[in-house]
Amino acid sequence: MEPIIDDVRLKPIFQKVKAGERLNFEEGVTLYRSPDILTLGYMANLVRERLNGNVTYFNVNRHINPTDVCVASCRLCAFGKKAKDPHSYTMSLEQVWETAGHGYNEAVTEFHIVGGLHPELTLDWFCEMIRGLKLRYPQVHLKAFTMVEVAYLAKRGKIPVRETLERLKEAGVDSMPGGGAEIFSERVRRIICDHKIDGNEWIEAARIAHQIGLKSNCTMLYGHIETEEDRVDHLIRLRALQDETHGFVTFIPLAFHPANTALNHLSSTSGFDDIKQIAISRLMLDNIPHIKAYWIMMTPSVAQIAQRFGANDLDGTVVEEKIYHDAGAQTKQHLHRQELLRIIREAGREPVERDTTYRPVQRTESAFTVLV
Ligand code: V47
Questions:
Q1: Would strands 248-255 and 290-291 be described as parallel, antiparallel, or unpaired?
Q2: Which residue among 62, 221, 297 has the greatest number of ligand 1 atoms within 8 angstroms of its CB, and so is best to mutate?
């Protein structure tokens, strides 16, 4: 049975989606301009089920943010602080290793490690941090450092990005998170994050990471001052790199949270925009296997609905989240495994706990094993 398509502009796009054909820039813009969220969702769900069946993935992870000291002053961010700010913090190596252990009894399979661009912490310090984590938690996957942090460490250490990535990998980094991509449009970047590497540099760092065997995620920050064309351009640039490297695992659209940022006059995104963004991501990124509805950012309720609009992942237990909560997020900082299972089942999906590389994890009361 086919859906009743309210918006006639979507009819030719629907034919292409059914045939598994790639959507172009203009079609991407048409998707954004359409209010017909049910047809967008129907099409995105078709692609989602083709790629991932009825499964929704989640993981048991822990975020670690070793420092919030940051030399950049991005208008989009409420997390970064100057070193002299009495509210800033920087963990010692021992504190990082100890923080990793908090809540460890939930059998965490991933540490997600990102932080500010600290003017004094060196590449050697971060390599030692990673080696220490690997020594203490050898079975935990280390998903660490955004392309922005890597480029900053390279610049400060006056060594190429490739060598920086190689040294981090050698120390024990297993893969990389998707942050820092923001939106590639230079016009927008100059306003929201002018101290960061530009879009081309982000893409180039990701290319090198993938070339040396580090998979990564990718993100897009939306709902601030970008246009619909900027969003489509961003998605198409990610898709082009993926054609080349196949190194992206998951795409996570990130809704801008304005509270406590220099852009706090902007409004938050609506549930309608968040759901549309999930659907359009699934439709445009035909070569990225997974679309994550990050519950911290969308709320568990909207992330649940997203599971029928193109998303097939919810992220994980998280345990302690700072970036979005500094920017006013009202969600909890932690969801238990049981709550994630309930949310997914209620959406009619089959929950599968995964490790970072999407291998299923089987749990018993006291232990877990990764099913290869
Ligand atoms: O890079 C910062 C964004 C990102 C704000 O790879 C903001 O699995 C909204 O990348 N409002 C960090 N967004 C989060 C991130 C992420 C999250 C979950 C999973 C993964 C993954 C990656 O958050 C930053 C930036 O793009 N951000 N400040 C803000 N005020």
A1: parallel
A2: 221
**Distance separating alpha carbons of residues 245 and 210, to the nearest angstrom:** 6
Inside any domain, residue 11: no
- Count of the separate structural domains present in the chain: 1
Report in angstroms the alpha-carbon separations of 289 from 128, 187, 204, 320.
Answer: 33, 30, 21, 27
Question: Is 132 inside a domain boundary?
Answer: yes
Distance CA 48, CA 41 (A): 10
Q: Which residue's alpha carbon is nearest to atom 13 within ligand 1?
A: 256
The residue contributing the CA closest to ligand 1 atom 28 is 77
CB 248 within 8 A of CB 214: no
Q: What pTM was computed for the model? A: 0.96
Q: Domain range spanning residue 36?
A: 23-356
* Helix ranges (DSSP H) in 142-249: 147-157, 161-171, 186-192, 199-211, 228-245
The tens digit of pLDDT for each residue in 312-343 reads 999 888 777 788 788 888 877 778 888 899 99
Q: Which residues contact 338 (CB under 8 A, 6 or more apart)?
A: none
> What's the CATH code of the domain at 237?
3.20.20.70
User: Rounded CA gap, 11 and 34, in Å?
Assistant: 12
Sign of the dihedral through C-alpha 7, 294, 249, 118: positive
156-213 pLDDT tens trace: 999 999 999 999 999 999 999 999 999 999 999 999 999 899 999 999 999 999 999 9
- Which residue, among 69, 62, 82, has the nearest Cα to 144 in the 3D structure? 62
For ligand 1, the distance from its centroid to the CA atom of residue 210, given in whole angstroms, is 20
| 287 domain-assigned | yes
Q: Could you give the CA distance from residue 358 to residue 278 in angstroms, rounded to a whole number?
A: 20
Q: Which residue do the tokens 């070569």 mark?
A: 287
Contact (CB, 8 A) for 74 and 365? no
255 contacts 268 by C-beta, under 8 angstroms: yes
In-domain check, residue 367: no
